[in-house]
Structures are given as C-alpha cells and as structure tokens.
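[agent] plan:
  1. take the single chain provided in the ticket
  2. run structure prediction with default settings
  3. attach structure tokens to the ticket
  4. add a short note for the reviewer (M.T.)
[agent] executing step 1
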Amino acid sequence: ADEEGRQGRRGGRIACRADRCALRRAAHVRDPALGRERGAASGRRDPRHDHGHAESGSLNRGAFSATTHCLTGCAIGEVLGLAIATALGWANAPSIALAVALAFVFGYALTVTPVLRAGVPLRRALGLAFASDTASIAVMEIVDNGFILLVPGAMEAGLGDALFWWSLAVGLAIAFVFAFPLNRWLIARGRGHAVVHELHAH
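[agent] step 2 finished; step 3 output follows
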C-alpha cells in the first residue's frame, strides 16, 4: 500500500508538471506579445522597428538635400540681388523685391537644369520646379529677409562690410531650420522634391 501511495504521488507530480508546461505553451500561443517580450529580452530586434528607422533616416536625408538645394539658390539670388541694389543705391523695398525674385530664379534653375538633362521637356520641367521648390523658397525668403530687416544697418551694408555677410549667413541658417520640416512634411506626402526624386528614379 505504501509503495502504491508513493507511485501515486510521483505520478501526480509528473502530471502537474505536464499541466504547467501545457499552460505555458497555450499562453504563448494566445498572447503573441509574450513572444515579442521574450524576443526583446533575449536581444533580438523587431525588423519592423529597423524598417521604421530606415524610412525616417531616408526621409531626413531627402529633406536635408531639398533644403540645401533651396538654400543654395536663395543664397545666390540674394547676394546678387542685394549687391545690385546696394550698388544702385536702391531703397529697402525694391532691394528686397529684386533679391527675392533672383532667389526664385536661381532656385528654380537649379532644379530645371538637371531635369532638362534627363530629357524632360521644358514645360514639364518648369512645372516640376514650381511644384517642388515654391513653398520652400518662399519660407526661406520670408524668414531670411525678415531677419535682415531686424538687423540695424544690414540693408545699407555693402559687399565689403562684414555686417552684410554675417547677417545674410545667419538669416539663411535660421531660414534653413524653418524650411527643413516643411520639406520633410512635403516629401513624406509625395510632394515637393519627392516628385523630382521619383523622376530621377525612373
């Protein structure tokens, strides 16, 4: 009888362990999050997490490239426009108008030129430039010229004055900060420079 009792207790413990193992397996199947938590604890990375980081990095690079592109056109146009206006002794309003107009001209030209080289007709190339650059250049010009107007004597400074160069440089740097999130937002929605990038991809 004692032997049978010991065997019964041993069998009960084995059955209990089997039941616990079955419960763990069932919980693992019912709750996929459990598997993810164990995977995270063991150091395995979720591939969807890596994919999200890759997309974000690509989007930031595209926005940085688009903003730098607009910054270059704006810088060329503003330096040339303000230099001409200063040499001619123009007042602030026509000086800013000329600088802004040339900033748009050079900004569009930097987009149109490589698109034309890709064999795109001029009319479509101009449409792509207007669609991809207008908003970004407009933001940069508003911020940059607004800053220059706030700096005493900046509008009257000539090319030989340090004030002319540092006020322009700081204004463009601030404008870059404002234009970057705009370009990122546009590219994320398939607009702005995303249109030009898609053309180059094909």
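[agent] step 4 note for reviewer: The mean pLDDT is 77.
[agent] ticket updated
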